[in-house]
Amino acid sequence: MPETLPADSVGLVTPHTRRFDTPLKLDCGRTLPGFELIYETYGTLNPARDNAILICHALSGDHHAAGYHAMSDRKPGWWDTAIGPGKPLDTDRFFVVAPNNLGGCKGSTGPNTPNPETGRLYGADFPIVTVRDWVRSQALLADVLGIEQWAAVVGGSLGGMQVMQWAIDLPERLRHAVVIAAAPRLSAQNIAFNEVARQAIMSDPDFHQGHFYEHDTVPRRGLMLARMLGHITYLSDEALRDKFGRELREGRINFGFDVEFQVESYLRYQGQSFVDRFDANTYLLMTKALDYFDPATERGQDLASVFRDALARFLVISFTTDWRFSPQRSHEIVRALLDADRKVSYAEIESQQGHDAFLLNIPQYMSVLGTYMRRVARECAQ
């Protein structure tokens, strides 16, 4: 809880909600008759309306990317390290928009919001959504905000996939695409991790085929296990070793199955706290969106061909110890962009933190991102 707000914070922020009554046809074949998106904004849209930045969040993220909702908040938004006055996404220069994805659980229409056809919460009846569906919904939000073209669309991990989809589907609506710690499609190993997480949730006796709200319960054990599994993959072996090693909580082995090692205690805490803030059905949807993302599949796995229609200039960033979306996966993106004769800058950041490095205040990372974004800012309203 801050006693005073840092000078480089966007300060206290209030989310906004926008209702869309136009039906949205989804890739799965179903149509949402209407939907809501919750979002936050930081900074001011300039008269030319050309300084807007779209932030796309990752699997467990949401619209609260920077600042605080109240002075009693324990933590700021999930990317407060990068968004604020004087930070890489400088809110003295940019108008930053951060929406919660469709299917999310923090205010946008999703499994935990009412189904207008039944009057009950959607639960498992909420349709499967894709990265392309999110881009469509975000474009509608841009329309109502009066933003014809983003100065940049920025995102890490699953957010980076949304950035690529924006550049592919709506090339004239963004000038820069910042893709951080992402991949052009999931590996079989990554899909396997997601499937184990989903099975942990769906096999929980409290899951009730996704309609657990009607039973006044949540699949706590399954969601906790899914988060614990995911969290392991977000960190590097070095990060876990440096933080915990083989440290014992009580300084001795007890020859039992309760928590003995500190890393076990840490994972259980991460899993339990996640249950209190996230929705099991949303977790299922987000992991499926990850699995399905594969923009090159429609062109015979020719990623360069897909990028050939893109007009944006790209910045691609990876982290050395990210084994979930390793630097080699970013190299695939960069290689395809170069083969497509697109303009791209690439940085590989030395980091011990694994995949989660894209959320952290790593000096080299912030320097690269800040340098690039200052160039984007200079282009605005020239």
Summarize the model shown:
This protein has 382 residues and is α/β, with parallel strands linked by helices. It has helices spanning 131-144, 158-169, 188-202, 220-234, 237-243, 262-277, 280-292, 303-307, 327-339, 363-379, and strands spanning 16-20, 24-25, 31-32, 35-42, 52-56, 83-84, 89-90, 95-99, 152-156, 176-180, 313-319, 344-349. The protein has 2 domains: 16-185 and 295-379, 3-Layer(aba) Sandwich (Rossmann fold); 190-288, Rna Polymerase Sigma Factor, Chain: A, CATH 1.10.1740.
Question: Which SSEs are present, and which pair or pack?
Answer:
Blueprint: E1 16-20, E2 24-25, E3 31-32, E4 35-42, E5 52-56, E6 83-84, E7 89-90, E8 95-99, H1 131-144, E9 152-156, H2 158-169, E10 176-180, H3 188-202, H4 220-234, H5 237-243, H6 262-277, H7 280-292, H8 303-307, E11 313-319, H9 327-339, E12 344-349, H10 363-379
CATH topology of the largest domain: Rossmann fold
How are helices and strands ordered from N to C? Answer: EEEEEEEEHEHEHHHHHHEHEH
What's the helix count? 10
Rg, rounded, reads: 21 Å
- As a percent range, the share of helical residues equals 25-40%
Shape: globular
Q: What would you give as the CATH superfamily of the largest domain?
A: Alpha/Beta hydrolase fold, catalytic domain
Strand order of the largest sheet: 1-4-8-5-9-10-11-12
Structure description:
With 382 residues, this protein is an alpha/beta fold. The protein folds into two domains: 16-185 and 295-379, Rossmann fold (3-Layer(aba) Sandwich); 190-288, Orthogonal Bundle (Rna Polymerase Sigma Factor, Chain: A). Helix content is 33%, strand content 14%. It contains ten helices and twelve strands. It has helices at residues 131-144, 158-169, 188-202, 220-234, 237-243, 262-277, 280-292, 303-307, 327-339, 363-379; strands spanning 16-20, 24-25, 31-32, 35-42, 52-56, 83-84, 89-90, 95-99, 152-156, 176-180, 313-319, 344-349. The protein has an eight-stranded mixed sheet, with helices on both faces. A two-stranded antiparallel ribbon has the order 2-3. A two-stranded parallel ribbon has the order 6-7. Strand 9 (152-156), helix 2 (158-169) and strand 10 (176-180) form a beta-alpha-beta unit. Helix 3 (188-202) runs antiparallel to helix 4, helix 3 (188-202) packs antiparallel against helix 7 (280-292) and helix 4 (220-234) packs across helix 6 (262-277). The chain is globular. The two termini are 41 Å apart.
